[in-house]
Amino acid sequence: MVLSSVNKMKVFQLVFSDPGRSFYSSGDKLSGSVQLEAAHTCRVTGLSVTAAGCAHVDHRGGKNRRSRSQEVEYLKYEEELRLEEQLSRDSDGCFLLQPGKTYSFQFGFELPAPGRLVSSYKGKFGYVRYYTRAVLDRPTQHALQCEREFEVEEPLDINKPDLLAPAAAAKQKKVTCLFIPDGQVSISAKIERKGFCEGEEININAKFENTCSRIVVPKAAIIAKHTYLADGRSKVLRQKLSAVRGNHIISGMCDMWQGKSIRVPKLKPSLLGCDIIKVDYALMIYLHIPGSEKLMLELPLVIGTIPFSGVGSRTSSMSSQAGSLGSQAGSLSSWSSFPSAPPSYSNIHRDLRVDGPRTPLLQDYDGGEDEEDDDGGLFMRAPELHYPPPPAYSEVDQDGVNPPQVVQVF
Fold this sequence. Notes:
By secondary structure, the protein is mainly beta. It has three helices and 20 strands. It has helices spanning about 160-165, 315-335, 400; strands spanning about 10-15, 30-35, 40-45, 45-60, 65-80, 90, 95, 100-110, 120, 125-140, 140-150, 165-175, 180-190, 195, 200-210, 215-230, 235-245, 255-265, 275-290, 295-305. The strands form five sheets. Strands 4, 5, 9, 10 and 11 form a five-stranded antiparallel sheet that branches. A five-stranded mixed sheet has the order 14-20-19-16-17, with no helix packed on it. It has a four-stranded antiparallel sheet with strand order 12-13-15-18, with no helix packed on it. Strand 19 (about 275-290) and strand 20 (about 295-305) form a beta hairpin. The longest helix has 25 residues, at about 315-335. It is found in: Cytoplasm.
């Protein structure tokens, strides 16, 4: 802030130690300096720095449209800077600022512990604002002031168990035409978790059924809901941020969304800790019904600042389930890789056995389980069957008369 020479101050401004920093959080140290430069010799009596933060709501409501306002304080700090370290005094005890020289007076303070601050916010009917203010007191003149705002963003981790839990809902509606029943429509939907960050994809699994005579259209949108409280009255504003749509569903048909995605746009995190201002998000899934009100259901969303780490109870349980399924699949594949044992010939009924003279000389070869044998499966393999002994045709020992000829089978 630069002042004109009428106020006898050429420079009067607040400078933060880290000007490139975009926001602060609970427990952070905020430091800086107050810079002074006088156009002419100037007498001052004191210099103080204050820091403040509050939530403020102002809206009109009720039949009389009466203005309602309320304020809650979250930060208050004050420090008196020591001018005697750099400035000399005159006979009246006032400090003298010499022209052509820039003076810098340091200040610093620590923001409150976690849980006592809320993130900065600016909306239609309220705000959460943080600022530092320097006050320069002068004798016989009004004090001079300069301000500088700073942003506060409280961390919001979406890896908490309650935000990693899935959200699901179902809803149905009966459709009428001139008070005559015209079937019904229904929605059932589920998302894998409630917590998301900017830029992440929300995968939607949903089922839409249409038994009315009209063509309906499924849609989904991310909704922001701003709630302002003042004097016991609330005012709510809803805002659609991004949307997707599906295919038309004709009468008597249904449609399935399996992982249909919608991206979280650039937006402020959920504002949950403020007493008079609240910002909630939701995924609204609905059916557009011509000539009738929409069928809508909402799944809660929390927009955080610390993104999903990919490690959670649900994820690990899913991994264990996938592992068990994989082991089952592996066991099944291992079982299928081994050929089943051939049936026992002793279990085959006698009348199904092949008589010796009609046994084929060559076994059919189809490249199956015998292809690894050295014989190649080309020679006859007569099963070793235990038939009852043949009847005696003669009392003469034929083996003694004509010794049997031994034929070796390869």
